[in-house]
Amino acid sequence: MKIAGLLVGFCACVAFAEPSAAPETGAAGCSDGVVVSSIEFKGLERTNPRVVKRELLNKVGEPFSAEKFETEKLRLQDLDLFTEITVTCTPVAPQPSSNQDTLSSLVSRLSSNQDTLSSLVSRLSSNLTYTFKEIFRWIPSPAGKTTDRDGLMLGLALANLNLLGEDIRVEVQYRTSTDPFFDKNEYVLYASSPYLFGFPLGWNFEFSHTDSYDDIRDYHDNSWLLDLDLDYKFLPHMYILATVGGRKLDRAALLPEFGLGFAFDYRDAKIDTRKGIYFEYMLTHVGGLDEDKVACEGGCESMGTENFWELLADARAYYTVSRFVTGATSLVRYRPGEVKFYDYFSHGGVNSYRGRYGDAERLGVHEALLNLEERFVLLDRQSASICGVNFFYGVQLVAGLDGSLIWNSGHPGWDNYEGAVYGGVHLVIPAVDRLRFEVGYSPDRGEPKYFFGIMEKVSTSRWRSR
Q1: What is the Cα–Cα distance from 50 to 426, expressed in whole angstroms?
Q2: Which end of the chain has fewer CB atoms < 10 Å from its terminal CB, N or C?
Q3: pLDDT tens digits for 155-202?
Q4: pTM surpassing 0.85?
Q5: What DSSP string describes 170-223?
Q6: 433-441 and 417-429 as β-strands: parallel, antiparallel, unpaired?
């Protein structure tokens, strides 16, 4: 999963930030049924208007709908480009007809004859004005991520969240391990956008180099990765997915990857989801090249090659009552074929199973991660500004149950299962979605485990080894 750079001292900044007035939850001066005569935008200093237009549901010439505005507001927030989004309506006087010359005559007729109410409303119209407060664009900052293998990694990053004003996110990063420093290193280029040359084809590109020792799987990971993920909105709630890429590991053959899948997405928002369901099925093939193509000089021992299919099922469901958000998720990956030790799953850590730290005791070819989480929205999304830099933040308290299944062949049994409870605090922020501070406890382990994570766990679970 692509992970943006962290803001410098973000937690400290939030503590001293002055929040702006709470954004309006409705549409000021707008009534359902009033015809939209025009649409204007204010505050788009660095964003191309077409980026906004393609997310709107209210259209010129159609009756305004407050329900549509709430939906399009969530879609605009998903772009991660704005801290505030409001809309106001300016009434436009109705055009007189041959037998109704003025607005005053319409009102007088209305007072004596209620049958003219529908005709009056149908002739009213308004100009819609969408007002935006843009988020920061350039981020020269520390870069961070957490993996179950390497723990917390920090470094430097330069990111542009809105390249050319076209909602293209590009970032370059260097990260190193913190325990010990400079023992494990990673160099990354990310780029992503929900559109490709104006066509609704979402894409995520990654090019990275890793140089670190994998303490869990016991090998030196000196590898290169090239990956491109695509998603096309085939139907209103259905996506066609594709992935193509390749990895080159020292002492191992080139490992090409290609896959196809589909997803049904009925969530109200992709970022900080409150309601809806998501289901994805993906079939990917990895490896397949001959082992004799491995370049291994100087008497080193070859790690060989892989040749397997991965069947992935990712299911998520959310429901909200008042400030309580309930989420249930599952991630299952089954891998028939030849899987080498360097690609074994490991369960233990903030991105997989929060009942233990990652170690070599729980490694396997196949995995299932189950989760039930309750969130209490302590502080809903608030906009703020520091020295002209706009951002937003929110605070959520969380508690949940983790289930972990990992096995090598056949069907999993109770010997392959571990469970844990956890709780913590999430800070919702731009670019990285959220910072997670969590404490997990497993009865089998008998002591609490402390974790710091970035982004949603359902996202980082997919890419935790990179």
Answers
A1: 33
A2: N
A3: 777 888 899 999 999 989 888 876 666 678 888 899 999 999 889 999
A4: no
A5: EEEEEEEEETTEEEEEEEEEEEEES-BTTBSEEEEEEEEEEEEEETTTTEEEEE
A6: antiparallel
